[in-house]
Fold HD domain-containing protein.
Amino acid sequence: MADKQLMTYEVGEQMNLMALLKNVTVRVAKNGKQYLDLTFEDQSGEISGKFWDASAADIDRFQAGRVVRLAGKRETYQGSPQVRIAGLRLANADEPHQPGDFVVHAPMKASDMEEQINQVVFEITNQVWNRIVRFLLAKHRKAFFSYPAAKHNHHAFEGGLAFHTLSILRLAHSVVQQYSSIDAPLLYAGAILHDLGKVIELSGPVSTQYTVEGNLLGHISIVDGEIVSACNELKFDLNSENVVLLRHMILAHHGLMEYGSPVRPRLLEAEVLHQLDELDASIMMMTTAVEKTSPGEFGERLFAMDGRSFYRPNEPQAGGPAVK
Amino acid sequence: MADKQLMTYEVGEQMNLMALLKNVTVRVAKNGKQYLDLTFEDQSGEISGKFWDASAADIDRFQAGRVVRLAGKRETYQGSPQVRIAGLRLANADEPHQPGDFVVHAPMKASDMEEQINQVVFEITNQVWNRIVRFLLAKHRKAFFSYPAAKHNHHAFEGGLAFHTLSILRLAHSVVQQYSSIDAPLLYAGAILHDLGKVIELSGPVSTQYTVEGNLLGHISIVDGEIVSACNELKFDLNSENVVLLRHMILAHHGLMEYGSPVRPRLLEAEVLHQLDELDASIMMMTTAVEKTSPGEFGERLFAMDGRSFYRPNEPQAGGPAVK
Amino acid sequence: MADKQLMTYEVGEQMNLMALLKNVTVRVAKNGKQYLDLTFEDQSGEISGKFWDASAADIDRFQAGRVVRLAGKRETYQGSPQVRIAGLRLANADEPHQPGDFVVHAPMKASDMEEQINQVVFEITNQVWNRIVRFLLAKHRKAFFSYPAAKHNHHAFEGGLAFHTLSILRLAHSVVQQYSSIDAPLLYAGAILHDLGKVIELSGPVSTQYTVEGNLLGHISIVDGEIVSACNELKFDLNSENVVLLRHMILAHHGLMEYGSPVRPRLLEAEVLHQLDELDASIMMMTTAVEKTSPGEFGERLFAMDGRSFYRPNEPQAGGPAVK
Amino acid sequence: MADKQLMTYEVGEQMNLMALLKNVTVRVAKNGKQYLDLTFEDQSGEISGKFWDASAADIDRFQAGRVVRLAGKRETYQGSPQVRIAGLRLANADEPHQPGDFVVHAPMKASDMEEQINQVVFEITNQVWNRIVRFLLAKHRKAFFSYPAAKHNHHAFEGGLAFHTLSILRLAHSVVQQYSSIDAPLLYAGAILHDLGKVIELSGPVSTQYTVEGNLLGHISIVDGEIVSACNELKFDLNSENVVLLRHMILAHHGLMEYGSPVRPRLLEAEVLHQLDELDASIMMMTTAVEKTSPGEFGERLFAMDGRSFYRPNEPQAGGPAVK
Amino acid sequence: MADKQLMTYEVGEQMNLMALLKNVTVRVAKNGKQYLDLTFEDQSGEISGKFWDASAADIDRFQAGRVVRLAGKRETYQGSPQVRIAGLRLANADEPHQPGDFVVHAPMKASDMEEQINQVVFEITNQVWNRIVRFLLAKHRKAFFSYPAAKHNHHAFEGGLAFHTLSILRLAHSVVQQYSSIDAPLLYAGAILHDLGKVIELSGPVSTQYTVEGNLLGHISIVDGEIVSACNELKFDLNSENVVLLRHMILAHHGLMEYGSPVRPRLLEAEVLHQLDELDASIMMMTTAVEKTSPGEFGERLFAMDGRSFYRPNEPQAGGPAVK
Amino acid sequence: MADKQLMTYEVGEQMNLMALLKNVTVRVAKNGKQYLDLTFEDQSGEISGKFWDASAADIDRFQAGRVVRLAGKRETYQGSPQVRIAGLRLANADEPHQPGDFVVHAPMKASDMEEQINQVVFEITNQVWNRIVRFLLAKHRKAFFSYPAAKHNHHAFEGGLAFHTLSILRLAHSVVQQYSSIDAPLLYAGAILHDLGKVIELSGPVSTQYTVEGNLLGHISIVDGEIVSACNELKFDLNSENVVLLRHMILAHHGLMEYGSPVRPRLLEAEVLHQLDELDASIMMMTTAVEKTSPGEFGERLFAMDGRSFYRPNEPQAGGPAVK
């Protein structure tokens, strides 16, 4: 019989399962001994725990990226799930031990996301934008479909960048249907490229960190530079309105200068892209938090939502459940 | 042959048409003589002009709400259309002279909007919310389908309140399709009621002003009080979660306390309602401004968009026009 | 000989007395063992301490709300009083063991406060306001005279809500004497009702928490809803100026929208109520802090006073003591 | 029969009375001719008006500080009273023509204010503070009892500085009665000196301007320097706690650093002084504005109250009038 | 005898001289007639004036960019110099009439600035930065040495961009001497390029306006794109640290994100560049304002210095003049 | 062979050297035992460490200000250097044990700094400023040349106040050379006195704390009071422009009111002083941080630089090292 997964245990239940060591930090306890601060992960989510009185051998053995057999008790600490570790050992050769099998990933396959995004590219009927988008998607294809959209917060999982992009495109499609004043190709092109700079700003899908380039340039200027390079390659005039409009879409997409956009949206489509970006990111964060919350309770505080915690109503309010 | 309408004249063209006097202010010029600061309106929009050296008879004659025959020249002042008045007289009995025929109104008929909103009410399957919504729509039906959504800014036209509500419902419908975590009945009920307090905050569809109640209570607390009264009437328990959730949807819909919400959104649906409200309002404002702007120019500064002006691109960027 | 009380021990002195367990939190120490983070309370104030190496029996025994015999040493940690626990046991049957005898409460008896507030109600000569105030005081009488005014910060003790209200009324009386432009009945009615919503926003006088209603509606909208319900009951017209003015007094009393008032004060009396509310709350907080501070020192940082700490001068500055 | 006074005319009524020219500005109209922008004053208040087509002789004749006979019509412009001037000439020798008879002044005589303030000085039982206060009151006696408290906003009339100080002392007396933790002598000493620097910051009671010293040092540092000089004169040690506490009272009285206090209040008494200062100033501003407003209307926007306008209720709310 | 120049006339003096029409705006006076709002310029500075009752011929004749003979009287309006125009005609063929002879320009010749900047380029010993700087200086040489540094505010004159750049380089040189921790080549390279994007953001040295590219991209992203293009051309790796550091210098030079930098300075040299940029710009603005102010007075409010006005002391404070 | 110094050990290296106990805090570990939180200092810098299971004798022995022999291992905790203590004992009589030999101090000798500052005083040719500066330098000479410039942050070492002042004077000298509009004597006088109040605001060069006077008055008002006292002593008129200008220089030097300046700079020289103060302080903080950072890394977050961390490039960018 297959193990239960990390997030399916109840508080107080005994756990016993295979999991990936996602993060490992060696710390010194107040009694002077070393211990390990661990994060375990499988496809159902992640949970943290402490391994006390770690020997040098333990520290050598339990490194990030390895698969382990974990025994312990499911607890809660300040609204977040925790495990009180009772036993821990490395996976045997006859147990599942491929790290890739234990990583949270987007709810769609990369190939499906790619297909859907390619469908949208067909709708970018302006040839300048179409070619720049295709050039850059091709150049960064592998990273774009595997990177997360962020280190923490929303879409911080494998494939999160493409999944977030696709969600915005679906919202954009609805908005274009409803408001005829919007230039659909411009909105779609901007949406596809808006976060592409994250493939250089972040280190990758595992143990994601900011790169030096990410810290010193930021993903907005990174992708802006990529567009300039693409234009150089494709022999597009940097001063043509087509190029200027597309660069503006990316530069302005954080909406406010204090959030890192060097210019505020001055095109209808740039303002819409900014708002849809925020809408998708915040629904994703709130949904993730509410799903981890018990009915009738407020969940954990969300840093990226100004520290607010969200309430999960007690019972289905309508015919169906409040959180389907 | 029918007259051209106000907004169809080119800059520099001679105008000659029937129009409604929307606003009339008597002022004193620097030379000590009185003049009239006028706003003319017909179904195509509105335009302002000055009537110099107004006699007491002129002041008596040209009152807000009357229909006039206007002759003059179409000009522009700081990006806004203006008319330099050459002639002005009241409409004759054989000319169109019904004020109602010259008012800007929503692009849908009230009966159509009502029908579509009623369709959504059916989808509010929670009976507490459904009955409160129906009670309040019935109580304020006439005003709800004729009032503007604001004094200035977005949807400041007859029927604007219902039209804005309906636009949000359409966006909400798309979002509900895309994100299964959202409780649709709660979002729909909140969306329908969120601005209903404006039927008391504002004075009506013509020469709209803030009422004393509007200034001292604000539309958020006004509609909150209406919900409480409805519950009293319908014998619903004010302390039940259903009622508390619905009140929260309305109280939180401005998103930030500094924008007048006494509490910030703490429900997924309340945050989404806030963002969709903002999305629809800003698309409406930007579209109106861009339509009045010449290609290759930045339009007027929009106070409610932090004073930004928006650019209208020079030419169709794609196969079709940028602003269809 | 009676025990000394909690706050009467000097730093370094051996303590031995009966006290109430106000809060109990079970935590895990860095050595992996459980301990109890305790707050002790008696009528002189409260003090915290840690009970190390707690057994399951200890955890079961020492629950919040029980009276204990505490032995230990009085210490100080970052400006706050602490006890280093040497011994702890439950009260015997022949020792004082009624929790109610160990709770901090307002410096006046509830019956005295009620009498004084009733005197003020007589001065509310406007019959609409008078009847609403009496209706709501009667409806929430018990809670109003026992609840604290806050979870932390100022007046966080049994009866604090009524005591704070009474203090504001006394200030209001002085101000009314000095400035004849103030409508005394309106100011008094607003003052009595301004924080009444806390009887629903908070859970009660013991282990005070925010209720779900408190988090989702806030005490301002709660009492506003109560006034609407009272009007419905008393058959008062919600649109009459009398009702609108009274609702405004409550809605505006936080002064700024970012502090949760949906409208800013637009009546002289509303602005005065806001300032007197702040004046009483801050004097109470500063007085409590200064009393706990040694002469010549700055006390603890007060979160609700922007993190400032206050200085207690070295010696009586005048003929009498600086802090009488 | 005596003339009516400036503020006793109804809107639309013909005016004919003696008044002081408080401010005179020569401007050029859009037709290229000069006109005078005038403010008239008598003991009832002030009103503005324009004198069109001013000749060189008019400009020479109508200078600030002269008494004139004014004829015209009482009007209103954006909520402020105005006069449309029909006739204007200098006062004859047999008409009232002493400027001092037409100046708005405090509602108490200077000698009465001085007597009441001296009474409070007796209650400053700390001899250091008592002697500094008496030294500085004596040094600046004449200016202190004649200067306004501000150029605009609150207490901008002759004697306003002393009257504002006295009002705060009365509030302080009530607060001292109610809260025993307050050191009364310190609060009184701080209250008397807090705005004394205005006798150097401002130019005087007529045509009040900021001096260069006022602009470069501000009244807070000016009075702080005066206290230091007084200590030098009286041989008080600048490093003694008594002196430091008193200086803190003055330095901190604006409450926030962004309002010009180099330090925030860190004494209970300093915080209370700040709040009472604000309370008296705002009641004075609101009362003045509401008295000029018609029942059922919102008055002029008050710059120093964040641009808010205040509502004057329609009718006496209680047995007596809303604004007595 | 040569004419006096614009800024050498005293207030009240009759003016009679040749000048350039820098800006011309046609407006309608309150009496319904057209007038011209003019700005005159010569090498001493600029002054504004109004030409009343302009005929169609006047409007056609007096266009921006033409040289005129101006007669009138020197006046002051709200602290700014003005001329009351008595006579105005176009320059005759035998009078000076070359616009270029009447333009304010930098106090150094373009060739001298170029020589000094080239000297600094030699000190950029890092070959990557050196070659990028030389590439871009060569590409935009003509504009760089003729454009102003801004539309208004500081260095808004011909050659202002290069002069401002050179001033920063001189400050940078002093700082490099004093603090050995600074990487001089990086600071110099960043300083030379930091505002180079203004050659595309602004329209040119005459009647300077923001271009569409300037509004939609901003000069920071424009020059960042130019660096990327240069690297493409020069075959430099965009991901090399040398390129990333240089791009960071430019991106971060506004210091705060709300001022348009997409990233805040994270290199010592980037922070220093930001501060030196601000130091030079503010000294230039204050100096210009103080020179126009009479001793003992405060000058005009400087928008870019938060609306502050600056004081010009009454007399030489030391052995020499306060403003040399 | 001489010991290595504190900051010259590599991470992981065994340490064994003499050092000063700079700070000692007794704390209670989570296991209930006491430990010492220690900061060690020598002329190379400072490092922290924990001494576990401290006995009463240990606590008595290891007091701040004593010199000890320290053995342990050099580690890193959150980017800051730490030592894991293996052995600790007091210095023997035959070992170095003078605390003064282990203190970080300015990179110049006090006598050299004094000489250089005196050179600048000669350039203050205005006799009023010259005499005030000399009077106050003489009065506070000893403290001025030994105090730090701050408790934390920049120049927090012995002699830091004078060294920071001298650095600003060197910058000021460069600026005066470059911009002739600046009144050098005024700038120099302001620079010398601007932070002099710190000799009263702070407790001294060892274990620096804020004094009560520092907390209640702040160094800006303290030095302002010192200038007033000096003028009293020197019989200078407080109302003369010379005195007012000098006081303004000091009062305004924090630039913004929210940073504690009661007035903003309104003199060119005051604004320049503010900017040079900030420039020197920030270069010092960044340099100190970068020197502690490994190449290719970001250093610790600097609280006084808005929490930013700064990057140390990987390799010398130019011919010479990036950080010389």
Notes: Chain A touches chain C at residues 29-31, 35, 52-53, 296, 298, 311 (CB under 8 Å).
